[in-house]
Amino acid sequence: MAATNAPPPGSPPLSQQPYFLRALYEWCVDSGLTPYLTVRVDHRTRVPQGFVKDGQIVLNLGPSAVRNLNMDSEWVTFSARFGGTSHAIEVPVANVLAIYSRETGEGMAFAAEEDVDAPEKLAVVDAAPENAASDSSEPPKPPRGRPQLRVVK
Predict the structure, then answer these.
(1) Structurally, how many domains does the chain consist of?
(2) Tens of pLDDT along 76-127?
(3) How many CB atoms lie within 10 A of CB 53?
(4) Can you give the CATH number for the domain in which 74 is found?
(5) How far apart are alpha carbons 111 and 109 in whole angstroms?
(6) Does residue 50 lie within any of the structural domains?
(7) Which residue segment(s) compose the domain that 25 sits in?
(8) Strand-by-strand arrangement of the 75-82 sheet
(9) How far is residue 98's CA from residue 45's CA, in Å, rounded to a whole number?
(10) Does a structural domain hold residue 55?
(11) Quick check: 56 and 40 in contact, CB under 8 A?
(12) Could you please report the per-residue DSSP string of 136-149?
């Protein structure tokens, strides 16, 4: 019988957010881009408070900016220098609002959850025109412009 990594029956499903964070971080680094993390700061978040603005902080996760980066299912931790002083940074994964490339802005945003135990709410919005007829014999035309992700509450 093959072993699985699935959670036991009756337990809450695994969050997808830490997997997306790690994947997009690797994509940025492999592409020569600088990964940035936007974080909601609360009592569990350990960051230099002097750099927090409107309850949020943007962190540069580039390999030359951080040391000992660890992204697991619950926490993003590393050390970095702010204003010449080294700081240990600890961010709950649930507090990450976005990860994106500084150079292009491409990445992913996550819903701001007030209740940390609530499931993430991230939706891909269909870019098909609203007035398109679904029973047409003509194949649908591809949407114009870039695809967009929107947080749906």
Answers:
(1) 1
(2) 999 999 999 999 999 999 999 999 999 999 999 998 765 444 444 443 333 3
(3) 9
(4) 2.30.30.220
(5) 7
(6) yes
(7) 17-128
(8) 66-71, 75-82, 85-92
(9) 15
(10) yes
(11) yes
(12) -SSPPPPPSS---E
